[in-house]
């Protein structure tokens, strides 16, 4: 009961006066249970402020919020997963063994409570400013398999410098795949070849995510501003014709996720 009262009070404080960044709600340990760390996601069941027993499962993606700064974990943009391994979570303390540039590894710990907290049942990070508590929550649980393999159909070559494409003919209307990715991608394009200015463009998209836990949005431009279609739920596994040719995708988790 005490935990809940604390949670409710702190959330109100966080909403009305967010001037002090120190006010970040109640830490993971006290009002959240089933706290786990998997595939770079911190996941927990946290109390809402509705009553003393209603929990929501939500998650925060950590790989774009923590970096390995020569062996020490720092809370800034940057992927730590590539150079750190052996993670363990005790309460809200994430301990990792990270590679240093000198070649040896250093064990480093980060108190996740400093920037991640329970806001009315939703686990959110304040690293990019005061978090806005999403007005609705999803009932979907964190997927047991968070992968999203893609297959492209009706493929063409796209290049911002058009003469590049004549050198890289694509099979049309062939199909080819990518992935499986497992991360939230804000705008992801497939470059062919890796160093060139040629991107795979596609008019059909198949998402094979076994969990059906993602919505994959397709965009006609490399900045992901012109949406030409999206695939989610039962459409997954089938080949969907888009409303135009796409060159990039955005992957949006359908469970409660702070990306
Ligand atoms: C914790 O996880 C167990 C097993 O998945 C589940 O039955 C339980 O409801 C969870 N607790 C909360 C508070 O959500």
Automatic annotation (TrEMBL):
User: Where does the secretion signal sit in this chain?
Assistant: 1-19
User: What SUPFAM superfamilies does this protein map onto?
Assistant: Cyanovirin-N
Which keywords are on file for this protein?
Signal
- Where does the record place the Cyanovirin-N domain? 30-123
Superkingdom classification of source: Eukaryota
InterPro entries in the record: Cyanovirin-N, Cyanovirin-N_sf
- Pfam families linked to this entry: CVNH
What is the protein name for this chain?
Cyanovirin-N domain-containing protein
Q: From which source organism is this entry?
A: Karstenula rhodostoma CBS 690.94
Its ancestry begins with: Eukaryota, Fungi, Dikarya, Ascomycota, Pezizomycotina
């Amino acid at each position: 009961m005490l935990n809940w009262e604390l949670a409710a009070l702190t959330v109100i404080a966080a909403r009305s006066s967010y001037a002090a960044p120190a006010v970040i709600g109640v830490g993971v340990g006290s009002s959240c249970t089933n706290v786990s760390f998997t595939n770079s996601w911190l996941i927990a069941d946290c109390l809402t402020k509705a009553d003393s027993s209603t929990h929501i499962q939500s998650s925060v993606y950590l790989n774009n919020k923590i970096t390995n700064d020569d062996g020490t974990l720092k809370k800034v943009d940057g992927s730590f997963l590539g150079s750190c391994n052996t993670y363990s979570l005790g309460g809200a303390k994430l301990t990792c063994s990270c590679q240093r540039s000198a070649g040896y590894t250093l064990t480093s710990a980060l108190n996740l409570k400093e920037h991640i907290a329970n806001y009315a049942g939703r686990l959110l990070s304040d690293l990019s400013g005061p978090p806005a508590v999403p007005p609705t929550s999803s009932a979907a649980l964190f997927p047991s398999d968070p992968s999203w393999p893609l297959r492209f159909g009706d493929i063409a070559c796209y290049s911002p410098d058009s003469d590049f494409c004549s050198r890289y003919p694509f099979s049309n209307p062939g199909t080819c795949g990518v992935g499986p990715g497992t991360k939230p991608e804000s705008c992801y394009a497939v470059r062919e070849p890796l160093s060139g200015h040629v991107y795979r463009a596609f008019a059909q998209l198949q998402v094979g995510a076994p969990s059906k836990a993602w919505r994959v949005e397709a965009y006609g431009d490399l900045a992901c501003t012109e949406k030409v279609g999206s695939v989610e739920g039962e459409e997954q596994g089938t080949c969907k014709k888009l409303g135009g040719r796409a060159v990039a995708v955005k992957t949006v988790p359908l469970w409660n996720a702070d990306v």
